[in-house]
Structures are given as C-alpha cells and as structure tokens.
Specification:
By secondary structure, this protein is α/β, with parallel strands linked by helices. The protein has helices at residues 27-37, 73-83, 90-109, 142-155, 221-228, 258-262, 288-301, 316-322, 324-332, 388-404, 430-444, 451-462, 475-496, 514-517; strands at residues 16-18, 21-24, 43-46, 63-64, 116-117, 120-121, 123-124, 134-135, 160-163, 167-174, 177-184, 190-194, 197-200, 233-234, 239-246, 266-268, 307-310, 342-351, 354-356, 368-370, 375-376, 519-523, 534-537. The chain has 14 helices and 23 strands. The strands form six sheets. It has a five-stranded parallel sheet, with helices on one face. The protein has a five-stranded mixed sheet with strand order 21-19-14-22-23. The two termini are 31 Å apart. The model has no long low-confidence stretch (mean pLDDT 93).
Length: 538
C-alpha cells in the first residue's frame, strides 16, 4: 500500500514559514500564477531545481488563442472537442477558448515577445487545428521566451520569494483541507510551509518512460503527493506520446515540433515511402495519437527503429527562419533540416490526466489548487490539441488567483500520522530501479496496451512497493516513490478502461465504446483498496 506520508516527522519540531500563497513548481503555470497572485498577496514559490527547469522551457510550437478575424472561439472549441475524443469537459473548453486571448495579452504585458509579420502577430497552424491560431516566439522557441519573460518578472518581484533546489515531500492536510507543505532544503533540513492556498504547478510524468521529450524534473511529484493527500486523480490512462522526437545515435530525444509538419513536412518510412495516407485523411496533420501509432506500425513493418521527417522540398530560407532552434540542434549532430531527412520516433510527451480540478482550479481538497500539466481541468479530454497546454496554464492560473482572493486565513492545524515499520535501510541503487520502471512502462504501458501486458507491468512494479517502508532522505528517492505511484495509477486506469480512445489504445479492445466508456476514470486512495474507480458521465 502507498502510505499517507513519504517520511516520518514530528511537525511540532519543524521550523514554520508562513506566506499567503504557496506555489509548488515553476514553468508557465507556476510563474504566471505567482506573478498574478503577488499583486495582492505574499507568495512563496518552491522549485526542486530552478525556475528555468520545466517542460515549458522546451515547448516549441506555441500558444493557441483566437486572435484572427477569420477565426472564432467556436472553431477553437470544436477543434479541441474533436481532438479530445469525446472526453473533454465542454465548460472547461469554453472557458479556455474565450479567456485564452486575454491570457496571451497578459503574457505580452509581462514582457513576452511573440513573432510578428507586417506588424501583426504571426499565426501558424498545427495538427487538428482548423485555423491559423498559434502564436510563436523566435520561430520555434516559444516556451523558452515565455519562461525568460516571466522568470525575469518573478525574480524582480518583492512579493515573490523563490526557493530553488528545495523539494516538496508532501502536502500537509487536516481532513479535507490543505494547510501547506513539508519541504526539504538543499542541506537536508526540513521545514513546514503554511499558507491560505497551496497551488500545484509541478508539471507532468514524462520520466515514467525511457524515451521522453521531458526534462529530468518531470517525475509526477504533484500528482503523487495529491493522491497521497486524498485528492481525486483523473484520467491517468491518457498519456500523450509526441509522434516526432529526434531518434539519432548520441542525441537526446529532442522534440521536432508539430509545426514542422504544419509548414509542409511529410513522413516517410525507411524505404522512402510517404505513408500517412494509409492511416488518416488528414495525413501528417492527423491527431497525435493517430500519427504516433502509424509511425510505430511502419517501424514494425520495415523492422526499423525510426521513420523520416522530410521538409527538404520547402525553401531553405523559410525552414531556417521558421525553425532556427530545431535547425541548429540537428546541425550539431550532422543533420541539415533543409537537405536531410530527419530520423524521428514517438516519445512520451504530455499527461492529459492529473489532479482533478473544477473551473477555478480547485481540487477535491479545500485550499489545494492545481494548474498546468499536473491538473486535469477537463480541457484536453483523451488527447490534447496541440498548443492548448500553454493557454490552459494562463487561463486557469488567472482563475485560481481570482478565487483565492476570497479565502479566509488558515486556522486548521495539519495532522501528520507517522507510519510504523519503516526500516532504516537506505535505498539501494535507486537509479537502477528508475531505469527498470521506465523499461516496464515502455514495454507494457506505451502506445499500445492489452490486459496481459498491463497486469504483467502491475505485478513487476508491485515488487518495488517496499520502498514505502524505507527511510527516504534524498531527492532521487522521493522522485522514485512518486514515479512508482504515478505508474501504478496509470496502469490501474488503463486496465479499467476496456476500450480505445484518444491516446489510450487497447489492442484487446480496439474500438471506442461511447455507450459504456464516455466517462472519466477517477482514483482516490481513500476509497476501497486505495484504488477504486468512480466514473462520471461526460
């Protein structure tokens, strides 16, 4: 069983730090929400590495918002609902498409420079979008530009205190109310931080897989600690694999943006044949899950570990101007985007599920909020529409800040129940354990799943459960415990959903079954067996 807390502590002995708002994590969700909250409240922002280390930083394509006269919120709504494969919460999508443009305006006011053409914002189109509505920065470095602007603003803000290299071990709760968090400092000392509102902005779960576009920090910490605290965790079976990450000896799994296909790139198998017409009428711009599975099928058929992305037919100047970072990155490994076919393969990219929230970003635990990839707002459904994630973070970040303005000061004291029977044996070879977990996930819980494989994965991971009886002291130990928690939640949800929908594909149930499965899967540790599905019709 997964315990309530990862460590045994006596709360009365810990130093206490109090602020109005505690933001856990950086990225666009954490930075934007902290800046907005700081206008009227004191904010403590805690990151386990630095405010420059997040998934946002690596986001290339851009941010989706309706800014063109040819576009409308209704079009954006329909595109999002279509990609989400029947599982989007329509109200949440409605909020996103109507409030997205204002969110983009906020980013611009905070110093973000988006690309322009002839004095207007340059809008591009990505997979499954019907209109050009994606703003980008420095061609293909949108995320980096947003993080640059927001982090400069946050660092110079007197109302925001930033703790880099601090690890949040657990949320401190009293019944159904969050009172703050237990944090480990770089020197190993622990501290209790308390506040009126605690906001999880801790990102996704990319490190569950060996091949991922995510940085090392994406270990699902927020989802795991919210689960331990008793929050509802929703739709964990929907993990998006990006179809095109660089797959080349010696190179990391660098993301090759969907926008490259949006600008005309085609996919070819190793025989040089363009193949997407065999899979979908939208060809290379089909929804991501379709493209990713098509690539896997071609790789199996041609006994290859990759396919090619080919944009050599477009003007070299356009390619270099539009994708300067991708062009330069590939060049470092001897690949020229303008003249070479680039070897690519799918990699874990984005978690559509997460900590369930309402339209104000509030979780099922009072005073606990979630924003960005850690959250499940209902916007993404079973498959995220490209470039909706950055807009989701700013739209719901602002809603959270508006909601917490009305909160009374915290009076509850957290209750920490220490688990008995933790052994003082330090964890052995946690790096090895993490690699083993990643291999299990790739093998059994990847782009294609079936009951036998999922159960096998569940059994193999269950052998790692004794970690929760160990005395944990290091960041990598906490991270492994969190990854293990998220892996088990994902497998449980994937086993329950006996159909294929969006990013969740079951070989033993290849059809989508709306009559039975057009509903969310919800896991909560307080219900029977610690993992019991409750479902809500959509």
């Amino acid at each position: 069983m997964i315990p309530r807390y990862l460590v045994d502590i006596d709360l009365a002995e810990l130093p206490v730090v109090e602020r109005d708002v505690i933001v856990i994590g950086a990225g666009i969700a954490g930075l934007f929400t902290a800046i907005k909250a700081s206008e009227s409240q004191s904010v403590l922002m805690i990151t386990k590495k630095s405010i420059m280390d997040s998934n946002t930083r690596y986001a290339q394509g851009g941010i989706a918002a309706v800014l063109s006269e040819d576009d409308s919120p209704e079009y954006h709504l329909q595109d999002t609902l279509f990609a989400g494969a029947g599982l989007c919460d329509r109200e949440a999508v409605d909020v996103l498409v109507h409030e997205g443009p204002e969110g983009v305006q906020n980013l611009i006011e905070m110093g973000t420079h988006f690309d322009t053409e002839n004095g207007e914002y340059a809008l591009t189109k990505e997979g499954a979008h019907s209109q050009r509505r994606i703003l980008h920065a420095n061609g293909d470095a949108t995320g980096f530009e947003i993080v640059r602007a927001l982090s400069e603003k946050a660092v110079s803000n007197p109302n925001i205190e930033i703790w880099d290299d601090h690890f949040v071990i657990d949320l401190a709760t009293n019944e159904d109310e969050c009172c703050g968090a237990i944090v480990q400092k770089p020197d190993g000392q622990r501290v209790y931080v308390r506040g009126k509102a605690t906001i999880l902005c801790s990102g996704g779960t990319g490190q569950l897989y060996r091949y991922t576009t995510n940085p090392d920090v994406a270990t699902g910490d927020g989802i795991a600690m919210a689960y331990r605290a008793g929050a509802d965790i929703r739709d964990m079976e929907f993990n998006q694999f990006h179809p095109t990450s660089l797959c080349y000896p010696g190179a990391p799994r660098f993301l090759i943006s969907e926008a490259v296909r949006g600008e005309g790139a085609v996919l070819r198998n190793i025989r040089g044949e363009r193949f997407m017409e065999r899979y979908h009428e939208q060809l290379e711009l089909a929804p991501r899950d379709v493209v990713a599975r098509a690539i896997i099928s071609e790789m199996e058929e041609t006994k290859s570990t990759f396919v090619y992305l080919d944009i050599t037919h477009e003007a070299p100047e356009m390619v270099k101007h539009r994708f300067p970072n991708i062009y330069e990155f590939c060049l470092n490994y001897g690949l020229d985007l303008t003249s070479d076919w680039i070897p690519v393969a799918p990699a874990a990219h984005y978690m559509m599920g997460g900590v369930q929230t309402n339209l104000n970003g509030e979780t099922t635990i009072k005073r606990l909020y979630a924003c960005g990839e850690v959250s499940s707002t209902g916007v993404h459904g079973a498959n995220r529409l490209a470039s909706n994630s950055l807009s989701e973070a700013v739209v719901f970040g602002k809603r959270i800040v508006d909601h917490i303005k009305g909160l009374e000061p915290l009076t509850a004291m957290p209750v920490v129940v220490n688990e008995h029977g933790r052994t003082s044996v330090p964890m052995q070879a946690v790096v090895e354990k993490r690699l083993k977990l990643q291999k299990i996930m790739v093998r059994y819980v990847g782009l294609r799943r079936n009951a036998d494989g999922l159960r096998k994965g569940q059994e193999e991971l269950a052998r790692q459960l004794p970690i929760f009886q160990s005395v944990l002291t290091k960041r990598e130990e906490y991270e492994f415990a969190n990854l293990l928690t998220c892996a088990l939640l994902m497998i449980e949800s994937a086993l329950q959903r006996e159909e294929s929908r969006g990013a969740h594909y079951r070989e033993d149930f290849p059809e989508t079954n709306d009559a039975v499965w057009q509903k969310h899967s919800v896991l909560n540790r307080r219900t029977a067996n610690g993992m019991k599905e409750r479902v809500h019709n959509v």
